[in-house]
Amino acid sequence: MVFLKYPSYLTYFFAATAAILGVSLLSDRLRSDHLMAIPRVVIDNLTWTRAIRQSSIDDHQYQVQIFSKDPLIMAIHPFITNDEIAHLLHVSENNFTTSLVYGGEESRFDPNKRISESAILSHDDPVVLRVEQRAKNFQGWRGNRTVIQRPTLQRYQVGGFFDYHYDWEPKRTSGNRITTFMVYLVADCEGGGTNFPYLTRPNGTEWCNIIECTEDGMDGFQGVTFKPRTGSAIFWENFYPNGSGHEGVYHAGLPVKSGVKVGLNIWSWDFSWRSDTAEADNADLPVN
Ligand SMILES: O=C(O)CCC(=O)C(=O)O
Ligand SMILES: [Fe+2]
């Protein structure tokens, strides 16, 4: 028999099995140690099961800076890795169609308001799911009536832009887009910043790697312009706590002057949201 003839194979076999078992037991232990280390406050929170599961599947690290507290606006870097960007661009390459604007009942192409191409991502793709989970984790779970709309890529060529708008839907009285992540996937461009005309530009130079700080950079636009930076995200909340829209988050994607910009929109809807004037009613969960 082979095993008798070559007893060392047996030894190697058992040693290797023991080693694999040991490593996997150890990594299970490390994983559960990691879970145990989650602060009590998270465990007391109703959402802890999900938070724990998610924290174990996405170990992406990023830095966050609060840019503004009212409205709440944060800068996150890097929100997405180069590999994730490459994947999202790859799975979308044949899916871009002309971006539309929503006026009244129907959507239409309006070159005075928006020139870009959009590609809606699938919820089934593991990278899309991971990035969505990251966005959910970042915000903290807000209950099971908060969901993420299918994330969308926006590609802007030279001359592409998106005129001033709010991301929330003014006609709705219940259920709305409560938060926005504007993620920059491709930022090989001049121009193409995200401009908030009603924000006040901070004094000092600390923010100058994130926002335009020079008159040239502002290009005649008012307020604050976030510069597209590959991998970065700007996150903001669209509403005041009483449910009324925050005028400070009025914004535009400024014209791309050269090169290409690709953004990723991640919008969260809260179906418990009620407008400040609305009678309570039951909003439907979204159809994606
Ligand atoms: O491209 C940008 O900078 C802004 C895009 C935007 O506001 C949107 O897609 O809703
Ligand atoms: Fe927008």
Automatic annotation (TrEMBL):
Record Gene3D superfamilies: q2cbj1_9rhob like domain
SMART domains linked: P4Hc
InterPro entries registered for this protein in UniProt: Oxoglu/Fe-dep_dioxygenase_dom, P4HA-like, Pro_4_hyd_alph, Pro_4_hyd_alph_FE2OG_OXY
One Gene Ontology MF term: L-ascorbic acid binding
Record keyword Acetylation present: no
Keywords linked to the UniProt accession: Dioxygenase, Iron, Membrane, Metal-binding, Oxidoreductase, Transmembrane, Transmembrane helix
Membrane-spanning intervals of the chain: 6-26
Secretion signal, residue range per the UniProt entry: none
Taxonomic superkingdom: Eukaryota
Protein name: Fe2OG dioxygenase domain-containing protein
